[in-house]
Every structure is written in structure tokens, then in C-alpha cells.
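G., the chain you wanted modeled:
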Amino acid sequence: MRITEIDPIEQRKNHPAKIKLRGIIKHVYKQMGKAIFDYQMLKAHDKVMVAVSGGKDSLSLLRLLLIRRARIPIPFEIMACFVDTSFIKIDREKMKEHFESEGIPYEICRLDLDPQKEKVGCFWCSWNRRKLLFETAQKHGCNKIVMGHNLDDITETIMMNMVYYGEISAMNPYLDLFGGKLTMIRPLCYLEKKEIVRFFNQFDFPDLHYECPIGDTSRRQAVRETIESLQERCPYVKKNIFKSLRKIKQDYLL
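Predicted structure as C-alpha cells:
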């Protein structure tokens, strides 16, 4: 693992302070801001580490946080962490170049998993990646880890846990860990995947050729297809699933 520091004075293309808030950019920025306010995700002098996978969600999240830092009077530090997972295809050099173009410190962590030799699924991969994120955050004194999970990810997780594991649980937008020493936040929790994709397409992000070979064949994909089918009859199905965990009727539970 290594960390790379970038000169903060360096003039960068598409400086966050110069990005105009309009259209889908304004919508996504405001929805992220609402989530941050509702869950009190960020405070002055936080040092946050953004978990960047190379997908559209995490790249958009990093850009959104840089825009926010440039516009609000609450100071906080940002660094990025990329967990370089052996079996996931991605252009690693372009990833490094992107971090440097954004002008932030970053660290590359290597995770070696072999799907041919061990049973690697979304859960096992995610568990190992988060372990590295926790260690890296602690190493650099970060008190918050920022994840790029969106509304689709959260609702899919709720459904998946009910159907496959027989429990009611979700990806919490704000989760204290290790007795409050570290907090995981998800500022994109109010936004659907399609909205983030539209935001992503407004910028000249690098094509990192990100591809996970097990993602489309997982249990999550099956749940995703079920939700998409339900959405044809109920357009608000994702938001309703998300809100349901805050509107539990205790009298009707076992």
C-alpha cells in the first residue's frame, strides 16, 4: 500500500469551484446535500476517505464532495482509497491519473482474491475490501469512510436480506463503527442509479474499463430484476422500500 500526496495549489481542469450547478448536476448535488443534512453526515474538520472502486457511482461521489467542499464554509479534508482487487478488470494507470487530476491525496491498496481457488462472491469480496478500507482510514487518521452506494443498492440489499437471509436489515446511510471511532456514510442514498449516470455523463471522466466478472450473476442481480419488474406498476417502489424501515408498525410484527 502507498499514499500519494498531490499539491493542493495545482490548477486543475474542471476545478470544483467553477462547476455550474444546473440541470442534473444541481439535482444530484442538492439530493446529496439533503442526505448529508438529514443524517448529519459531515462536520467541520472531518477527515473523510472516499472509497473509489472505479465505477460511475464512486467517481461521481468524489467529484460531488469536491464541489461541496469548494462551496460550503465548513472545512473538511478529502482523500481517496482504491482497493485494487486482483480479479476485477480496470485501467489502474488511468485511475491514478484521475486522482492526480482531481488534486487529492490517495492510496492504492492491493487485494488478492482468486475465484478459481476460493469461493468468491459479493459478500466475501466486500468483507475483505472493507477490512482494507478500515485499516487505511485508521492509518491516515480519517474519521469517516464515504461509500458510493445509491438508492438502488440500498433497496436491493433490503430485499436480498429478506429473501435470501430471512432478516430485515439494510445499508445504513450513517453507521458508527468501533465504538464511534470510525463512521461510514452514504451521501448518495437518496439518488437512483440512473440519476447518477446522468450526472456522470456531464463530465469528461476517464473510461477505466471497470468490470466485475461476478456482479451480473449474483443474487443481487436477481433481486434487481425483481425490483425493476415491480417498478413498472409502482414507480416509487425503491423510495417506498427505503422509507419502510423508518415506518415500522410494531403491533403487526411477530
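The chain has eight helices and seven strands.

Shout if anything looks off.
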